[in-house]
Write a structure and sequence with these properties.
Layout lengths: L2 H12 L4 E4 L2 H8 L6 E5 L3 E5 L4 H7 L7 E4 L5 H6 L6 E4 L6 H11 L2 E4 L3 H6 L4 H24 L6 H14 L4 E2 L4 E4 L20 E6 L1 E3 L2 E2 L2 E7 L4 H20 L6 H15 L8 E3 L6 E4 L13 E4 L2 E4 L3 E4 L2 E5 L4 E3 L9 E2 L3
Parallel strand pairs: 1-5, 3-4, 5-6, 12-20
Antiparallel strand pairs: 1-2, 2-3, 7-10, 8-9, 9-12, 10-11, 13-14, 13-15, 15-18, 16-17, 18-19
Length: about 350
């Protein structure tokens, strides 16, 4: 049996449940390695993956006897079969933060059990990465670093935000990425003042500031990375903000060690922002893994203690509406003494010349 599945069965038993219905495809992948659509049912009788005819062959090709998982085509199952996965009236866990109310009602009708909230037990387990997960994220970070170095050497006059974003995506896919970790952000000039700017047809100009927020997936695991560069020259007005942001990121990374309290670290950073008169437009970061945004969120109301091998994106930013914004972000791994950046592109002032 897969170690993660054994862990879950132990958790289910400790919660006095007879099983769990897992609907979130990310959690299914984490537990089983399966990426096909379906529902994963863990019970004391058997472990079942219910999919449909489009995926059944692919699923069966992946599963081995050691997995102790049986795959079913949903068209071959009757309502009686579903009821047999559990005993009528059993207490069965479900993912309350993922399942819609409509799905909840359908689940209750299908399995005829008492559905019990499980309070994100799988998501909480995913916070600390094992050795293989760390290596996958490192590879995603390497591809992202390389894509950034490529694009800043190949931006030319007349290119639009959309065209630059397309070139980054193309490079990532050609150099080992499974796909994008999220919709890429490429913003020029005044558009950088919007934290989640969407690439437009705005063309690049001399004197622009460029905000990149990019990341890819490798074997399903994400990277997250932000940099700003300057076209032909760097306005002196940018330096104060840039230096502040970089220092804030360094302070967080230095403080983020095993046992550190997220709330205390982020409160200190908020004090710095208040002293400078800067607004806080978003969290200072978030967990990274199979999803680009995982727990923990780096906010002052998150009273969690960090654990070694937690991977987080640390992304302080300052945004001046209608003028410019600057965000510096790296993917970090939490260690015993501090957090180490897995994305490694230079954070020195970078001025590019258009070709």
């Amino acid at each position: 049996m897969k170690p993660r599945l054994k862990w879950l069965k132990d958790q289910i038993m400790s919660m006095n449940l007879e099983g769990m219905i897992i609907s979130n495809p990310v959690n299914i992948r984490y537990l089983t390695g399966l990426t096909e659509e379906g529902t994963f049912i863990v019970s004391s009788k058997e472990n079942v993956f219910v999919t449909d005819g489009r995926y059944i062959e692919s699923v069966n090709n992946k599963l081995t006897l050691d997995d102790e998982i049986v795959a079913y085509d949903q068209k071959d199952l009757t309502s009686y079969d579903y009821e047999q996965f559990f005993n009528m009236g059993d207490k069965v866990g479900f993912e309350e933060s993922y399942v819609s109310y409509e799905s909840y009602k359908r689940m209750f009708k299908t399995y005829k059990v008492n559905l019990i909230e499980t309070e994100g037990i799988i998501e909480k387990q995913r916070v600390v990465k094992d050795e293989e997960e760390v290596e996958f994220i490192k590879k995603a970070c390497e591809i992202t670093d390389s894509a950034f170095e490529y694009i800043i050497k190949n931006i030319s006059k007349g290119m639009t935000e959309k065209e630059v974003a397309f070139e980054i995506e193309r490079y990532m896919l050609q150099h080992g990425g499974d796909g994008l970790a999220f919709d890429l952000i490429v913003a020029f000039g005044e558009n950088t003042s919007m934290p989640h700017a969407v690439p437009t047809d705005r063309a690049i100009n001399s004197g622009d500031i460029i905000q990149f927020d990019i990341g890819c997936k490798y074997n399903g695991y994400c990277s997250d990375f932000s940099r700003v560069v300057f076209v032909d020259e760097m306005d002196e007005g940018y330096k104060k903000v840039y230096d502040f942001i970089l220092e804030e990121q360094k302070k967080i990374a230095t403080a983020f060690k095993e046992g550190a309290n997220i709330k205390a670290v982020i409160k200190d950073r908020q004090t710095d922002y208040n002293m400078m008169g800067y607004d806080i437009a978003h969290a200072f970061g978030h967990g990274v893994g199979l999803e680009i945004h995982e727990i923990p969120t780096l906010r002052s109301n998150i009273d969690n203690l960090l654990k070694e091998n937690t991977i987080v994106a640390i992304e302080p930013g300052v945004y001046i509406p209608g003028k410019f914004g600057i965000r510096i972000e790296d993917t970090f791994i939490v260690g015993k003494s501090f957090a180490t950046a897995l994305t490694k592109a230079s954070k020195d002032y970078t001025i590019i010349k258009l070709k």
